[in-house]
Amino acid sequence: MEVIASDSEVVLGQCWRDLAEITASGIDRVILYGPPGTGKTYAALRFGITTDVVERLICTEDVTSAEVTGSWCPAGADAWEWLEGPAIRAWRGDGIRGGRLVVDEVDRASGDVLSLLLAMTDTDDSARWKNPQSREVVRPAPGYSVVMTTNLEELEELPPALRDRFPVAIRIDQPHPSAVRSLSPDLRRAALNGSLGEPSRRISLRTFYAFDRLRRSTNAQRAASLLFDSAEATAFLDALSIGALG
Prior knowledge:
alpha/beta; two-stranded antiparallel sheet; 11 helices
């Protein structure tokens, strides 16, 4: 089973060309949506950042406001101090330029957190937050940007007020070549194309990484059997062998 695809043969997907153009233009509020396993978070953490300050917030039903803007923490005997959360740290950035706030799986955020996210993603001219300890009024530093990610296929499922904060939404339907570069060469093209098509037939980039790792210690057939049911494993190996995924 040999399906060789060099990096030079890989065509950058239109979604990634769109993202590069948008970030280069200075747009600083972007939603990346679409099927899982295509590298939305990978892109959000790396592309178009202006400083080394990149903060990530993973939304779940259990995330609280303390994990967004910060909370009081013990600082010795009978002493407490306020520790700022990722959103405020991203606002501050490196002290000169604002950082990047990545909000993953925003559709899973609870009501209180969604309310805070509205404030944290407001326009720079309108955004304000007061530190409960120092009473300092904090504003986003120039260059602050936000990228939200979601596996939703329909953005109408997001709250309208939150959606309105983001002038651009890009459906990511193909992994970026940079995200597959650490795969073995014979899997790179397959990983890029495997996320396309009907949802029931898509194969996550994470699955390709797991397959690549497993087959190094066993063999391709055994690796596939550990990742898929019998019929899916056979179809996956057949597709690789004839280049249907490549």
